[in-house]
Amino acid sequence: MRIALILFFFFFQAEDGIRDAQESRGLGDVYKRQPTSVGFMLSHCVHQVPERSSSLRMPDGSHHVTPPDGLEPFTLPPCNTSLFGAELPMLLPADYDGWLAYTALNTSRVGLVSGSGFDRFTNTMSVPDLPESRPDILYLFPGLQNQDWIPKHDPESQGAGFDIIQPVLQYPGGFLSQGWSLKSWYVTLDAGALHTTGINGIQPGDAVLCNMSKAGEDSWSISGSLKSDPKKVTTQTAQKSRLSVQPWAYNTVECYGCNGCSTYPKNPVVFTENALWQDGVVVESGDKWVVDPKPCLLYTSDAADEEDSVDLGGRRILKKKDMSGEQESMADVTTVTR
Predict the structure, then answer these.
(1) Contact (Cβ atoms closer than 8 angstroms) between residue 252 and residue 140
(2) CB of 243 within 8 A of CB of 255?
(3) Per-residue b/e over 61-99, b at no fewer than 16 CB within 10 Å?
(4) Average pLDDT over residues 252-261
(5) pTM
(6) What is the distance, to the nearest Å, from the Cα of residue 197 to the centroid of all Cα atoms in its chain?
């Protein structure tokens, strides 16, 4: 039996309008902020790296990046999050919706030794239709984290030492990008974020083969390829001591500026063939995934009374689907205990 995690887009935002909060007031251009998959981050801390690059976090906080094909290595400066000696807050924008729907799994829930981590996470992520209206940015992804820190829900102070690795489907993908884009992301709160050039123009109805695999004691390969053309791959390798243990797995829908139903796809995003490994052995996760363990009660949904839906914290509808052989049944609905 295979378990599919399905995230449906039934969300209604309480306020109208999208507000521009991409610059810290009075701090100058160097302190402008831009969205990442864990909230707004100082722009000079977010870097695009060539495909198939390898990065190594250095003791001084910089990243030594080695591109492929014999290209010249280069160093990215440390992420300076202070101004005149004072630490700058994350300052999430007013239109940041956060993790609207997600599922979580920790090693402890599948009987693994406390404090141990996964060494591989793979799944297949469907590509839904494009929203009728453009949000600021919509992120869909599986990911592995070293601690259970959820942006907007948990205080930034609790995110110290946080890392996440993730292949991310995003819309819009860039200034000139049309359709969905796929990028490989490695994000921290204290050392900035690295993302690949990515694959643009991904069509609805396709699927992404996601793969986060340990490449060494404290390094990971983070990749995503298209099911329609596996030769189209986005990938990077990240190395840092904190990456030695990644005990938290997620499947997530995150948004900036989703303002009503038109800024969401009409069809769900489906995460299938979820597989986690430790020491080269597949871990039986089955029904151990937890649906939306930290709900945010800021939004309302009109789908809560539908027989085939579950109201999650007032705004999220998720389902679990049992797929045996070629048959796919939509009858099994995730049960949530509040």
Answers:
(1) yes
(2) no
(3) ebbebbeeeeeeeeebebbebeeeeeeeebbbbebbbbb
(4) 88
(5) 0.79
(6) 16
